[in-house]
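Progress note, sequence design subtask.
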């Protein structure tokens, strides 16, 4: 199973567009325009800094997902190998002790005599 990479969001696309416009306005005015207030400075520089942070964190997130995918694949392979070993243990115990032995039950298997007998009923019609 692979995890879904985080793609560029609509917010990031919108931020890139607005940042481009903010930089054009700054260039035409000859200075950085503050779109916020005294307590909340919003300039093209602050938007660009936060946008770079979002892109960097998205990249880190996607790298972490790739590592998680690799670990997940290793776990799947190890579980498949473990399952194969467990089947071999049960088959070996069946060969050594018999299909109806207590050892089969101790290993988590079902003794042959404990299995449900399937019978077919024929409908008379």
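Output:
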């Amino acid at each position: 199973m692979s995890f879904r990479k985080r793609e560029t969001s609509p917010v990031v696309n919108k931020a890139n567009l607005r940042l481009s416009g903010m930089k054009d306005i700054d260039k035409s005015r000859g200075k950085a325009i503050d779109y916020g207030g005294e307590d909340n400075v919003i300039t093209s520089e602050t938007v660009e800094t936060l946008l770079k942070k979002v892109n960097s964190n998205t990249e880190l997130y996607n790298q972490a997902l790739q590592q998680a995918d690799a670990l997940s694949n290793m776990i799947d392979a190890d579980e498949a190998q473990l399952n194969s070993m467990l089947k071999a243990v049960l088959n070996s115990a069946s060969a050594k002790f018999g299909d109806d032995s207590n050892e089969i039950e101790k290993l988590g298997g079902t003794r042959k005599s404990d299995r449900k007998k399937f019978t077919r009923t024929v409908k008379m019609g």
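The chain has one domain: 10-108. Work on this subtask will continue into the next period as scheduled.
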